[in-house]
Fold Phage infection protein.
Amino acid sequence: MKNIFRIFKTDGKNIGTNWVAAILIGGLILLPSLYAWFNIKASWDPYSQTDQIPVGVVNEDQGAMVRDQEIHVGDDLVDTLQNNNDMDWQFVDRDEAMDKVDYGDYFAVIVIPKDFSKKLSTVISDNPKKATVEYYVNEKINAIAPKITEKGASVIVEQISNNFIATVNGVIFDLFNNLGIELESNLPDIKQFEEYIFTIEKNLPAIHDMLNESLTDAANAQEIINKAQGLVPKAKQVTNNGLATIDSTTEFLTSAENRLNEMAPKIENDLIKIRDMAQSADKFISEIQSKNVDFSQGKDIAAQLNERVNEQLKTIETIEKALRQLQEQNQNNQEPDNTQQPTIDNALKQLGALRNSLQKVQENAKLLTAFIGEKKQEADQTLADLQQLTQNTHTKIDAFMKEYKETIEPTVLKEVAKAKSTLANARGILTDIQQTIPEMKHILARTEGNLGEGKEKLEAISGEFPYLSNKINQLADRIRDIQDETDINEIIELLQNDPEAERSFFAEPVKLNENKLYPIPNYGSGMTPFYTTLAIWVGALLLISLLSVDVVGSEQFSAQQIYYGRFLTFMCIGILQTLVVTIGDIALLDVYIHESLWFILFGLLISIVFMSIVYTLVSVFGDVGKALAIILLVLQIAGAGGTYPVALLPEFFQMIHPFLPFTYAIDLMREAVGGIVWDRALKDIVYLMIFGIAALLLGTFLKKPINKKTKLLMKKSKESGLFH
């Protein structure tokens, strides 16, 4: 142990008394710090300087028409980028942009194609197409820049997408809001519609029966139309016959009216004659009564009276015959409301009574002739009776003449005129009916066509009825299910919203609430554990490269004494290197260190461990050990996870990761920078101490035997003049 400290003191004395050695040692103490500081400062906050990266932007968008409104998404994007400082956006044409990105003046170029707005507008069509943004990057210029520019391009695309989604969602939620308002206003109609559906469902059997009845009625209606079409010719014939009958009846009435007009004066004259005859007979009888008649002349008188009575009877027969002809014509008229018949019948009765009176006069005249010679006294009585009869006859004739003049003739003429008027009206009606028959025939034909078409539609409806019935039942069941599952008032409340708030929500439905554990404010501070650890290892490499692991006069010391004695020198210089770099990180660079004291102490521990490893490799293996230390450095830079997460490294580096000192050294320094979790820190300390103790044990027990075997090899390498 005494010799170990003797070697250490001698090294310290030599450094203190030799200014050249002191300067060299000072340089070795400072150089590792410079390596760490420059790298930390260079990577202090590179992502805050992305506005210095030139990126070309080419806008070739020609716009599009959306519902009579012109849109230019490309122009809107350019306006947005002009106010964006994430990159150094350069707005140029395609040729200039491609030339500059190819030459390296631009790191990347973003091209907005001609159909950019047009494709975005297809979102409202049945075949929407995705719009594309062309991105060109020159990856030859720098390894990191393409990633940064790619991120910038992705941000642009994301921004376009978010704005587009926000706009579309705004329109959608405007529609939803309007739909909710409209649903609320139409809620009574919706309820009524539901009731209609349930009512239809309830009445489906009745509707089915009604359809069947309609089909049956349609078939019956077809038969009725066929019968009606068959009766049209008969109706036409009947109207023709009716017109002919009316024409003949009218002609007959006209003839009867003419005959009546012709007979009226004659009848009147005949009645006057009868009256005159009755007067003459009465006068004649009066003369007979007033005179002394010679009964011998009675036969002559009776003959004269009989002759006059016969003339009167003939006249009455003539009138009676004319009235009977008029009666026969009137009966042929067959009108239900005929008022002529009673008048004619009454006239015939009066004529009959008059005729009976004259016949009695004639009979009395005959009696007069018979008894004239037998009973004169009875003759007087007979004459008196005869006179009475003639007077009655005269009275009846006057009454009949008055009845005929005032009643019979006017009534007959009036009724004949009325019958002619009725027949004229009937003829007009039949003529209208006859003219309507072709139209009726056309209507029947059209009705038959419509009925056939209606029957076909009824049959089609009847055929579709099972499907319709099934769908209505399904709809009714679905409405009941919806009523059980949801409340339309809740749906209306859900649809009614603030479109602006909803659009904002769906533009960014998930907001990242970032909670930083062990926050580190900048990239340089985050890289400090790696670069500081690397600087400590590099410092050890510098020492073993410039300082000798052997001592002058080594013959008087054992291998273990030389190993530990010179190790103390290397360790002290390494500690000074670590103090400079760790304190410089804090004081000069103002690196964020959560636990500054522990950062320095952890650095000192790492320095001792690293120095033991590097020193042991060179002390035991000589120049081969130097190579091994460099190889180990390379492996640790790549596999320790200092820059990239271990999960991103190739499988080989993931395999060696747990066996590298850097792994635990960097992790321990990160604990001090971000905040110490002592479980992890203690684990790292334990592993580092294992590495350090293992190195010391290796040097203690293998230095002497391995040095003997490598002594000749080292001698030969020095003889080459290339190695010291």
Q: What stands out?
A: The chain is about 80% helix and 5% strand. The two ends are 29 Å apart (CA to CA). Residues 376-485 form the longest helix (110 residues). Strands lie at 54-59, 64-66, 69-71, 88-91, 108-112, 134-137.
